[in-house]
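Bug: token stream looks shifted between consecutive jobs. Job 1:
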Amino acid sequence: METGCLEVVVNRKPNTLMRAGYYGAIVLTVCFCLLSLLVSFYFLIPFAGCAVLTYFLWLEQVVDYEYVYVDKEIRVAKICQKQKRKDLAVYDLSKMEMMAPQGSHHLDAYKNRDLKVIDYSSGDDSNKSCRYELIMEGGSRLILDMVGEYGEQIIALIRNYYPRIVFTN
């Protein structure tokens, strides 16, 4: 059965601490620039460091996660400021132990296990109805928001291939 490629893009909720750090870095950059011009050129080094920090904090202001389902794999990418795309991970679904909605009673057996939590969700509580947890072999728990029509299609496809370990209730 050929499924092709299905893609879901989830907008991450803005982090207020990151935004405050961004504005603080801008203030420090301006201060070190003025100090380097008025007092001494030795302030150019902290100025350059603050300018680089400001750039990286700016990139983290708007982050989207992209899930792509291809050939029984979920590929996760991070898109910063709608410009830079970075592939984060590829998860082979044949190594999946269970997939269920977050808070489902099917996940109760995994509550006391020491699992590494990897959160690729939006962080917004309004998307909790479409938030799924994937328990992978090797001790990791993925949290994904399967929003929209394509998210439902991805879950249906995974359920067709692995009906005993994928729950949708």
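Job 2, same session, no restart:
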Amino acid sequence: MKARVHISYKTGVLDPQGKAIGLTLANLGFEGIGEVRQGKLIELELAEGDAEAARKSVEDMCEKLLANTVIENYAIELADD
């Protein structure tokens, strides 16, 4: 089973890298772009075959290491290979 974890800043948390990306896009002539938020994607290959157990395991990983839950949100996607 594979898991993807999408991590992004919570609303209200400053995102200087997102702001820099937005400004650069505007400087390159791209129009109509509002706020830009930058995040990260972590892909995991899991030996677990049970989706519920896999999700719980990945949630524990996020809470303990992968995401700073004070300032970041995370979303988990699970897929069978």
